[in-house]
Structures are given as structure tokens and as C-alpha cells.
Amino acid sequence: MASLIAENFKFISLFFKSKDVMIFNGLIALGTVASQEVYSVFAFSCPCSPERNYLYGLTAIGVPALAVFLIGVMLNRNTWKLVFECRTRGSRSLSSAAGFALLGSIVGRAMVAPFTWTVISLLRGEPYVCALSEFVDSTSLDSFPGGHGAGTLARFPCKDVPAEVESFKEEIVRRLKYESQLLGWLLVGLAAITIFLLMCLKRCCSPLGNHQEAYWSQYRSSENDLFQRTAEVHAKLLAATNVKQFFGFVALDKEEREQVKEFAVEDATPSLQWNKITGVYLYRENKGVPLYSRLHKWAKDMINVNLDNNGK
């Protein structure tokens, strides 16, 4: 029974690991929906005044979307890889293909939350109704009384509508919500088509077959996981070496003492080596041999250097 539970848990963990990007984007979208609902309930309040309605409605849709987009860009590690690449190696050494692929990854991830915010705002309809109520053509409404201009129309999203035109409120709001929801669903359809075409383009332009592409993805995930875990241990052991040098001893638990005995860490890794394994990378080959990352390329170069030295 215990082995069965362990196998099932392992299968579930592997499934979620293979779908981590999709799940991550889904969680971002759900968080954005929840935030939008909270904002609509507690914060959205149409001013119901000519000109102010338009600015307030567009701001309610656009500014939060822009804010979460910038946050998404800042939280993406690829953004800082691109900054590092331009700062350290110069933009000339960054190929257009690598730059385009990286920017596409950054923008694609960052667009999930603002796109969700915009679509939910349009499907709810309140910001759109607020923004465009004053621009409704009153002549398109049957028996709409004269003498009521933009000032009256701007008050339709609110409750204080003049009694003589109150009967038109439901029709105007319904018409504007129809337009808003139509735009929302069109955006959803356009996004679905765009994502499908981009996925097809990525598969068509990839130099790898389906199995090797899956292997490369698995390699990058494993390398990153092992690198992070090893870096954590290396940093702890280097710190322990320096603390011991200062105090004459270092307070370690049992597991850490075993690590100190097993792994000898006496000095920090040179910055030149860090620079060689850091930055933007696209798939490359050397004489038909795949190079899956900068770390992989650096390791192969070190092997070749050692072979040359031994040959001499």
C-alpha cells in the first residue's frame, strides 16, 4: 500500500512538473480574476460625469493591466538574463533569433495577467459602460426625450438618472454590455488563434525532433534543479570554511558536518566561469554533438582543454 501511494505521488509530481508553465499561467490567471472581482466590488465607482467617465473607465481597464504586466516582466528571470547579456557582452553579440526568442518568452509570460484582467473587465462590462455611456447616440433610441445631452447619458451607469429617461437605462446598459462582451470574446478568440500559430511556428522552426525537444526540456529542468541545490550546498560550505577561519570553529549540525567531510570547498568560483555559464542560450551543436546549455558548453570546453593539456 505504501509503495502504491509513493508511485502515485511520484506520478502526480512528474505530471505537475511537466506542466509547470501551464499550471503557473493558470494560477496567475485565477489570481487576476480574483483581484478583478475584489476591485469591482470594493474599488470601482464610476464618476457619472462627462469626460471623467471616459478617462475613469479606460483607466480601470488599462492601468491595472499595465501594472501587472510590468510586475510580470520584473519577476521573470529571463528579463535579467537579457539585461546581463547586454551589459556584459554587448547587444552586438546577442543574435536576433536569441533576442526575439527571449523577448517572446518574457512578454508571453507577462501578458497572462494583463490579458486576463482586460478580458474579465470587458466581460463584466462595468468599466466599458462607464467609459462610453456619454457617447451613446440618443437618436438611435426610440422616443428618447430631447434636451438631454452627454451630461444625462453619463449618469446612466449610476442610480441617479432623471425620471423622464430612466426607462431607457436598461436598454443603454444592455447595449453597451453587449459591445463590451463582444470585444472580450473576440480578444479570447484572437489570443487562442495567436497562441496556436506561435506553437506551430515554434515546432516548425525547431532544429530538434519531438523526442529530442522533450529531452532538452527535461535536461534544462534537471540541470537547473541540480545546479540550484548544489549551489546552495557550495555556498553553505564556503561560508562554513570562512566562519571557521575567523572563529576557529563553526557550529554545524550532523548533516552539515557530513557534507563538510565529503565535499572540500576552499575558495569561491572565479567570476569568469560564472560569466561563461550565465546568459541567453539557444540550442547549438559542435560537430554533431548537442550542447544543451551554457553550462554544458563550458563543461565540454573544459574537457577538451584537459585533453589537449594531457596530450602535450
Count of domain modules: 2
Tell me the structural class. Answer: mainly alpha
Tell me about the biggest sheet?
Answer: 2 strands, antiparallel
Question: What is the count of DSSP helices, taking H or I runs of 4+ residues?
Answer: 13
- Overall pLDDT: 80
Work out the number of β strands.
2
Compute the separation of the termini in Å: 59 Å
Shape: elongated
Order of helices and strands: HHHHHHHHHHHHEEH
- Helix amount, in percent? over 70%
Spatial strand order of the main sheet: 1-2
Radius of gyration: 29 Å
Low-confidence stretches: 1-19
Oligomer: single chain
What proportion strand? under 5%
Subcellular location: Membrane
GO molecular function: monoatomic cation channel activity
Organism: Acipenser oxyrinchus oxyrinchus
Transmembrane segments: 21-42, 54-75, 96-117, 182-201
Write up what this structure looks like.
- This is Calcium homeostasis modulator protein 2.
- Keywords: Ion channel, Ion transport, Membrane, Transmembrane, Transmembrane helix, Transport.
- It is found in: Membrane.
- Its main location: membrane.
- It is a multi-pass membrane protein.
- The protein is an all-alpha fold.
- The protein has two domains: 204 residues, no CATH class; 100 residues, no CATH class.
- 72% of the residues lie in helices and 2% in strands.
- The protein contains 13 helices and two strands.
- The protein has a two-stranded antiparallel sheet with strand order 1-2.
- The longest helix has 38 residues.
- It starts with a helix and ends with a helix.
